[in-house]
Amino acid sequence: MVEAGGRVQSIEKAVRILEILAEAGGPMPLREIARRTALPKSTLHGIISTLRETGLVEQSAEDGCYGLGLHLFELGCAASDSRDITAISRPFLQELANRAGETAFLAALDGTDTLLLEVMEAPNPLRVALAPGTRFPLYCTAQGKVFLAWNENILRQICRSEPVAYTPHTHISPEQIQADAAATRERGYAIEDGEHRIGLRALAAPIADIDGKVRYAIGVVGMFRLVQSEEFATAAHLAVEAARAIAASLQRRP
Fold this sequence. Notes:
Blueprint: H1 9-24, H2 30-37, H3 41-53, E1 57-59, E2 66-68, H4 70-100, E3 103-110, E4 113-120, E5 135-137, H5 142-149, H6 152-160, H7 174-187, E6 190-193, E7 201-208, E8 214-222, H8 230-251
Antiparallel strand pairs: 1-2, 3-4, 3-8, 4-5, 6-7, 7-8
Helix pairs in contact: 4-8, 5-7, 6-7
């Protein structure tokens, strides 16, 4: 049920169950969870079953008690990594924005989207305004092309989908998307040439995590004259340098 303010009661109840299990510090019988939540038996069973199926809660095979699941640990680690890389990347983003003279951004792969984690604007009156937390498609943005280039599974998934053309320049056929991924891997960074918004051009470079996987990208977006321009090439070089520096910093994390 959704309340007037947009709150979803079932989610609030699920979160409360997770909080109770966290406070307990160990497995808890269902009757104790029911006592602490005061939820009807049918409601509690439904929520607990869903939490168990998604890995957020685990049930002991020995006594049937419930505890927090490993998937919560995985989510917590992912959230911690996002905060770490955002903090590590800020000085590199600011320098990139200042030297390129355009808006610099840090993006993460999130499912079949890209998510902006941080944005730094250059002191340019015609700069592009972006906001952290904004989602973009993979196939027609520079940061998205980075993730497709270094993730074969998601590349195949996007090629099997039905991409939408945002502009007349958007590449939507599987052949075009695969060619973009191959070109990105070859040059070491991705190019976006008016494919998501007319008049905007962007580039992004991959950031390899400590395990070698590309989960993040750093890039620049602006109103460059051409992707073949000297300004664009300079921005690409700076982004690749910044990506390598951030990756090196991630490797040095304790």
